Amino acid sequence: MSDETINNFFSKVDSLKSNFITRLAEAVAIPSVSADAEHRPEVVKMAHWLVKELTDLGATDIELKELGIQEDTKDLQLPPIVVARYGNDPAKKNILIYGHYDVQPAQLEDGWNTDPFTLVEKDDALYGRGATDDKGPVICWLNILQAHNELKLDIPVNLVFCFEGMEESGSLGLEGLIEKEKDAYFKGVDAVCISDNYWLGTKHPVLTYGVRGCNYYSITIEGPAADLHSGLFGGVVHEPMIDLSHLFAKLVSPSGEILIPGIQEMVATLTPEEDALYDNINFDLEGFEGNIGSKTIIHDNVKSALQARWRYPSLSIHGVEGAFYSPGAKTVIPAKVIGKFSIRTVPDIESAKLDQIVIKYIEEEFAKLGSKNKLKAELIHDGNYWVSNPHNWSFRAAARATKKVWGVDPDYTREGGSIPITLSFQDILKTSVILLPVGRGDDGAHSTNEKINVPNYIEGTKTLGSYLHYLAEEEKDA
Amino acid sequence: MSDETINNFFSKVDSLKSNFITRLAEAVAIPSVSADAEHRPEVVKMAHWLVKELTDLGATDIELKELGIQEDTKDLQLPPIVVARYGNDPAKKNILIYGHYDVQPAQLEDGWNTDPFTLVEKDDALYGRGATDDKGPVICWLNILQAHNELKLDIPVNLVFCFEGMEESGSLGLEGLIEKEKDAYFKGVDAVCISDNYWLGTKHPVLTYGVRGCNYYSITIEGPAADLHSGLFGGVVHEPMIDLSHLFAKLVSPSGEILIPGIQEMVATLTPEEDALYDNINFDLEGFEGNIGSKTIIHDNVKSALQARWRYPSLSIHGVEGAFYSPGAKTVIPAKVIGKFSIRTVPDIESAKLDQIVIKYIEEEFAKLGSKNKLKAELIHDGNYWVSNPHNWSFRAAARATKKVWGVDPDYTREGGSIPITLSFQDILKTSVILLPVGRGDDGAHSTNEKINVPNYIEGTKTLGSYLHYLAEEEKDA
After folding, report:
1. A167 an active-site residue?
2. What domain range includes position B97?
3. Cys-Cys link to B310, which of A38, B84, B265, B414 (CB 3.0-4.6 A)?
4. Would you call B246 exposed, middle or buried from its count of C-beta atoms within 10 A (0-12, 13-18, 19+)?
5. What residues of A are in contact with residue B296 (Cβ under 8 Å)?
6. What Pfam families does UniProt report for this protein, alphabetically (chains A, B) (predicted)?
7. How far apart are CA A94 and CA B38, in angstroms?
8. pLDDT digit string (tens) for B246-295?
9. A34 and A180 belong to one structural domain
10. Are B19 and B52 contained in the same domain?
11. What pLDDT is attached to residue A2?
């Protein structure tokens, strides 16, 4: 990509700014809330809006992949996955672009300053549900097509679009579709680009190369047949809630150290190269404390805090089902309590082995308590971690695009939480995945007054567009 | 009391059986539910029903003591306390009879086999709300008056009745009235008899000489300003729920041993005489396990189990406010949790000293955790224990009455739970209190299908009636 080409592309993007904002406004105006069955027609309407845009922009092979009836409903049809191609040159690399067109629920009464389904520009930011999660980034790709079309500029890779409508509701049907189309519609994909996360902060662009997994467990302790009065039975029976408290205290220390033996041993050793990625990340603990709203961070430096967040496992205790949870004072001995906790997993923790270790440990610790209550410890659900090589060809291309647009090298980040689809694409398509975010860390993706800053939307379009050009230039890793 | 007199009284009670059942049926038909503002007129109606009965039976000085507006309501009048006298001979002892005429809520839909406000006789038991708690026992006293009137038999003590209408709703206004009338209406009371608890089991009559107190505490731990996502912040922040779990585990062992130093030291030493009261109590662990519906009793013999229940302190953990409590799996780090626990107190634990010990211990243990979260441990409410001398003149009279009616010596029991009014009468009137129950342990006082067995109702009338005669004979203790 010559400097002239890229400068033309950038100028075209700048000149289309108001056009791009109008496109986003149209999309935000469709309340495609996937969590709410009553909104399902709006989700489907959004799929058709995408089909029209893609058609107008010259995409081909556009299909609405139907996914059948939503599980646990009578006849609620899942929204379709929109697939399309742009370019089909066998000499070019094939890049799969993932995004989602459904949004989180939103109501003015929740605390929005303006109607969530009307895009409002204020202080150089665009407010509206989906502005940053994920309609903004999805539309960046459409904007890129428009800019190239108007410039009659070739996109040097083939694009395969995959836009789903159930991401905010568990991505139902997506993994099945990837599996089904791996040797068909998605055959020959060389890399996957997902723009559905955020910068770490508000100032510095990032590339994201990993997410932690999550194994979620329950500890059920059963004693009496029904709740008892603590006056009548306190001191007489083994209380499930007391047993559970002792087990909880055996799981993790107040400073976050997992007390279950055998887990730390599975964690991949930190290499100097990986450690160096944390050296100059644009992040400060004061800002982090500001996010949290309290000075309760365990770590005293950025590197430890971020490594604890991204590349080490953690164990959180979420709560107790079956105990007294209301305000006030109830003198109850709960008959059956279900403790909930989860472990965030990282390389090279094997999920099945982790389950075995965790459950055996809880059973052994319970046996030590000498309680006559009954214990059951089990996995509720799991999702594996994902880590990519942040120096591979796709990341190199994204780093060049970032540097070109923003004038700085990107920070390399991971996410503490899970994004299961990342792993689905990587494992099923056997390809490399990059998370290349457009929005900022303070966009309020699932919150009220969600926004995307105009610079992020416009420079994001440039970043994603130039990424495609650099992808064509970068040599695929062995 | 000659054998002839007593036999006449017993025969009269037997002959009035159907009359007594009709009287109870009339009372049960008035749904005097104190917890429900809409039922308040029915509670008042029940007070007037008592006034009419007392008037017809020759009671004097009958008054409805008004208690004003119920706190935290706009204009809801508290139901009056019905006071009355029967006999006013300065040469006789004065016995205060306490009972309550309000009842727990009840609806057929809750699982009643028959309308809760229609007394139904089945298998020699009388089913209906209030049958045993506490209309049955209250009406036993009315039955005693009727039998004596018809026999023209003197009651050898003066009776002072005190029937309240808010017992099931915290006895609002009662303590104030006792305080107000201690040197007026209630002046000169020699003993108080309360029939508002139950036999330990279903076969053996009991006299009750103690109840435990209860100090209820909360542990509030605050970390972040709002709930956090465990993926993003797990391993990064000190989690309040983890801190709380560690503190909970420091309070009490799984076998019920209180781990807070200094509490056991305050407990009165068990004397051989007191220990002997537990030797032959009609009670078995199998039946107790049957009540509980599980084999999770800490103790392997009746004596230890009952002493743990009645005369030793216990600590129960009730639950957590602020944590995740629903079914399912939520990956939340709760920002603020409030743990609830309580300690059942016994002689000679001083409530204020206990608070001091408990709160100091929690603060010290929290300091050891090294958490940056904020802790606040505090007392929510307390109620003192009550213990009487089970060998005093009132108990001796009750034991004689029991032996006469039932042919067996009573078991001496305590209650694990609190009955605060017991203590109010004892402390304010500076007199001895006895709990002399009429109903059985399986009467279902606060449950569906509440009942009183006909033998308990009729023999209970005889027991309470002969108790009055023996009271006149027994010499008051110094």
Report:
1. yes
2. 3-211+386-473
3. B414
4. buried
5. 223-224, 237-238, 371-373
6. M20_dimer (PF07687), Peptidase_M20 (PF01546)
7. 73
8. 999 999 999 999 999 999 999 999 999 999 999 989 999 988 888 889 99
9. yes
10. yes
11. 80
